[in-house]
Amino acid sequence: MINIKYSAEVQDARSNNTAIVALESTIITHGMPYPQNVEVAAQVEQDIRDTGATPATIAVLDGCLHVGLEADQLQSLGRAKNVAKLSRADFAACLATGGTGATTVAATMIAAKLSEIEVFATGGIGGVHKGAEQTFDISADLLELAATPVTVVAAGAKAILDVPKTLEVLETHGVPVIVYGQDSFPAFWSAQSDLAAPLRMDNAVQIASAHVLRQAIGLPGGQLVANPIPDTDQIAAEILAPIIAQAQTEADNKGISGKSVTPFLLQRIFELTEGKSLTANIALVRNNARLASNVAKELITLRS
Questions:
Q1: Which of these, 127, 187, 200, 282, has the minimum number of CB atoms within 10 Å of its CB?
Q2: Recorded E.C. number(s) (predicted)?
């Protein structure tokens, strides 16, 4: 049996059948320094509460899966060093060895399914890395979306990725990619891109209905909701393109690969944008949390 511990807040929401939104924890351990990481995580949780749902930040602490973190646990995780970055391949191993790990998109989806949470808010999903035709570096997030019935609200795929190939892989695996409120696929830090929206929906009711109907039809997997960053918080794509290219070249020259690629690129982009990328990242995560909360509430209404 899997040892799952729910926070008091999440347990109360489960008992009362109210909306819950899952949150990943790598943004805490691998996304920014302490104490900013804890402050941002707490703010995102509060955004979910303010929108009428309950936040469930997910992590593995000393071999136990925690769904929802108490304030002291959030602080401890924010200070912790050498925390594992968990995906599908190493999630069970961390539990078995009594380890501590932060969940990526894939691992958070798995934990959400185990906890009967149907909606998850994150910044951006992983995907096909540039040069994948040589490296085969493709995030497990994509296959998880094809397998696990959770609606993931993100600002698209991270802009450091090969986004067209990422969309092709999602299409191949039958993952609905729903853009919220516009006809182009968002580019993470930028609201618009040259890529057309595979699907468009304009309200949380439609998104929740699509989630329920996929299950009624018997289709496996979840759906990706691409929620554009607010215009006032975005960084123009033409400004970011040469910065991303420079960071990718540096990573290639240093021989950085595997799970180390994304943290390296995000750190270099943070440095090259003088912190603007992190400010935008925080804004888009908060925006995604609010939309996810509305979808989770609509799911409760539909289920009842």
A1: 200
A2: 4.2.1.70
